[in-house]
Write a structure and sequence with these properties.
Helix content is 62%, strand content 8%. The protein contains 24 helices and 12 strands. The strands form 3 sheets. Strands 1, 2, 3, 4 and 5 form a 5-stranded antiparallel β-sheet that branches. The radius of gyration is 29 Å and the shape is elongated.
């Protein structure tokens, strides 16, 4: 965003921008080829996305491995079919239900169907079907087979729901097209209102859409090699659309200002790429560093989500530095031909409102600093009560087949029913090296499990076919999303199982999907500080090289950390405390999905840095030209005021539009990101950054000469 300082900045991006502006046809053709190749490649690869997580070394993974080795049938994929009537009993429709059960047994890939369980009131019946193939590989089309098989029961007036692994195929594929259209439409309105030019409004949107399509296509191709989470395509689209529009907006605004200042279009495009293009490159690099740092968690599931988002951001940055200059060169001075009023670009007047506002902060920096800290600090307070967990079918849309199954099982009584039946634990006791009789181990284990507070029921431990294990199913008294079940998990693993088997030579493990999810949560919580530390250090070093300062990176890192904490707090208030029930349609008390805070930290930190880089780069340019900190800060705030505010508003509405997604994780990320952008673009950028910059004065730009010589030259 800053002017090019002679001898201080390579002209590579400027030359690239000029070339693209002179040869727009070639550049547009190249991007269209990339678009066709990316979308065609994605279709040819036919990627499969999965939320299955592997945690080698955890007790749930060890238990699952022992069980699979001793009894392969026990580890097969399975789904639960639930039959329910509102009045009377299911037995009154026995013929229709039996026909449905027979049809389920005959379905492709079904290896068996358990003996149906009936609730104490007779209104609910459940049966578990096992499969010879992972259900996610069967695809969503398999739902039609399930519906055909259960049609006799439904025709007889019996409700049917699907639980267990069936959620992988019964839940409809995420279709966020409506969210994307809402976000695009809102962005167009904001651009028209802010800059009054149809051409200037359309150019960022069109180039961003092309970049998003290419980026998501590349994500799909990569997904043919590595398996991404189901939220990865939506996350890539959401971030790609947000940063794509913003990056293009920054370049388009600078280009139009150069046109207003009288420069020829090709020269203006080159200057834009050489100045704003460098800021885009640094901003995109900052986001990429933050996202790729997620691999340091040691959890490939999360690292891959970061990779998918990084691909989208880097493709958007590449489009901003090539496709946008080409489009600007093609439009030339005609970019403002269609206007709704007198076109405007950057704020530049020494007497405009932004400069008056900067002067007001300069006169009372301490007042603005203290006042500006109140909101983010208050918003961060709920973080101390944040409860991580897994969002299961209990948060699915009301009326869906998966939510029906969850609620019917939770609301029924008897063995195999109750809230905890939606997330039972499996106890696997390895008795191969036992020093006491197996019967004693079975009795001690059963007695300990039955006597543990929070256990609704536990089956008598049964030996595996090879006699190497004893296996028991433990049903918690509470649902899998509750803190009570989390406490029970720790009680069983830390006290009950070790105590029951002490001195026997046997060892027990808690496994099953709920145990694996809680192990994953605990692993994420332990490794979150590592990710925070890595991102903070890398961001500080990068910004130090960009701005040649020790203090500016320190302030930027601290403020962005505050923004992230406030965004986490907002998520707790909306989802966990239930403030957003009416808006988002979720039950109160939904925990924060275990990996969302880690993803939020990387994304929020990266995106928040974007705006600070654009703002601080203009301040740095003013400092290099005048060596007057007051003029540099006031000028940077004034010149970037309109464009950064518009960019932040656009990104906010794009993110908010994705809160309509049926995927709860996407809702959490979208809402948290939207909140962070609003906070960053208002309180952080307009209050805290300038007040701190004014307070520090010329020391903002201090760096030891020896360190300055050692650092690479990365001006924004």
């Amino acid at each position: 965003m800053s002017s090019i300082a002679p001898g201080r900045r390579p002209a590579g991006l400027g030359r690239l921008g000029s070339f693209c502006a002179r040869h727009p046809g070639w550049v547009l053709a190249a991007w269209l080829v990339l678009l066709v190749a990316a979308l065609g490649g994605r279709k040819a690869v036919a990627p499969v996305f999965s939320d299955q997580v592997s945690l080698p070394g955890t007790q749930s993974d060890t238990g699952a491995g022992l069980l699979a080795a001793s009894d392969p049938a026990a580890g097969r994929p399975s789904g639960v079919v639930v039959f329910h009537v509102g009045a009377g009993t299911v037995a009154a429709h026995r013929q229709a239900v039996d026909q449905s059960l027979d049809d389920l047994r005959a379905l492709p890939h079904v290896t068996g169907l358990s003996t149906p369980l009936t609730s104490t009131d007779g209104r609910t019946v459940s049966a578990t079907a096992t499969f010879d193939e992972q259900l996610r590989k069967l695809g969503h089309g398999y739902t039609r087979h399930l519906d055909d098989a259960t049609a006799p029961a439904r025709d007889a007036g019996v409700g049917v729901g699907y639980g267990g692994d069936f959620t992988q195929i019964v839940r409809p594929p995420a279709n966020d097209l409506a969210s994307e259209l809402v976000g695009i439409g809102a962005a167009l309105v904001i651009l028209l209102l802010a800059f009054a030019s149809v051409g200037a409004a359309v150019t960022p949107l069109v180039t961003a859409l092309i970049a998003v399509a290419v980026g998501t296509g590349v994500v799909g191709i990569v997904a043919g090699v590595i398996t991404f989470a189901t939220a990865a395509p939506t996350l890539a689209t959401m971030l790609g659309l947000g940063v794509g529009i913003d990056y293009a907006l920054f370049l388009t605004t600078r280009f139009r200002q150069d046109l207003i200042d009288g420069r020829p279009p090709v020269e203006a495009a080159g200057r834009t790429a050489g100045s704003s293009g460098h800021a885009v490159a640094v901003a995109a690099l900052t986001v990429a560093v933050a996202l790729l740092s997620l691999y340091a968690s040691g959890l490939s599931f999360i690292g891959k989500l970061g990779l998918a988002a990084t691909i989208a951001v880097l493709v958007s940055a590449a489009a901003a530095m090539t496709l946008v200059p080409a489009a600007l060169g093609l439009a030339g001075r005609h970019i403002d031909r269609l206007s709704v009023r007198a076109p405007v670009a950057e704020s530049s007047s020494g007497h405009d409102a932004w400069r008056r506002y900067a002067a007001m902060i300069e006169h009372r920096p301490w007042t603005f600093l203290v006042a500006g800290l109140v909101l983010p600090v208050v918003c961060a307070v709920p973080v101390f009560s944040m409860r991580l967990g897994h969002v299961d079918a209990g948060a699915d849309p009301s009326g869906s087949a998966t939510r029906h199954a969850y609620d019917w099982i939770a609301g029924a009584g008897g063995p195999g029913f109750g809230p905890g039946a939606n997330g039972p634990f499996t106890v696997v006791a390895d008795v191969r090296h036992a020093t006491v009789p197996a019967s004693q181990i079975s009795a001690d284990l059963s007695r300990a499990l039955q006597g543990t507070h929070g256990v609704a029921g536990a089956t008598q431990p049964q030996p595996s076919p090879d006699g190497a294990l004893f296996v028991s199913t433990v049903t918690p008294a509470t649902g899998p999303q509750t803190s009570a079940t989390s406490d029970l998990f720790r009680t069983l693993t830390d006290r009950t199982l070790p105590g029951a088997l002490r001195g026997t030579g046997a060892r027990a493990y808690l496994t099953g999907s709920t145990a694996a999810q809680l192990d994953f949560r605990d692993t994420v919580a332990r490794r979150l500080p590592i990710i925070i530390g890595i991102v903070l250090v890398l961001a500080y070093l990068l910004l130090m090289a960009v701005f040649r300062s020790l203090m500016i990176p320190l302030k930027a890192v601290a403020l962005n950390l505050l923004t992230t904490a406030a965004s986490w707090g907002a998520l707790v208030a909306v989802f966990q405390w239930g403030w957003g029930d009416a808006v988002l349609g979720l039950p109160k008390g939904v925990p924060i999905e275990s990996y969302v805070p880690m993803m939020m930290f990387a994304i929020v930190f990266g995106l928040s840095m974007d705006y600070e880089i654009f703002l601080l780069s203009r301040m740095a340019a003013g400092w290099r030209e005048t060596r007057d900190n007051t003029r540099a800060v006031a000028g940077g705030l004034a010149v970037t005021g309109r464009v950064i505010s518009s960019a932040a508003l656009i990104m906010t509405v794009v993110f908010l539009s994705f809160t309509a997604s049926p995927t709860v994780v996407v809702k959490m990320l979208a809402l948290g990101l939207a909140f962070s952008v609003v906070l960053d673009a208002t309180v952080i950028r307009l209050v805290l950054v300038p007040s701190l910059m004014f307070l520090m004065g010329g020391s903002n730009w201090w760096i030891p000469r020896r360190l300055d010589r050692l650092l690479p030259r990365l001006h924004a």
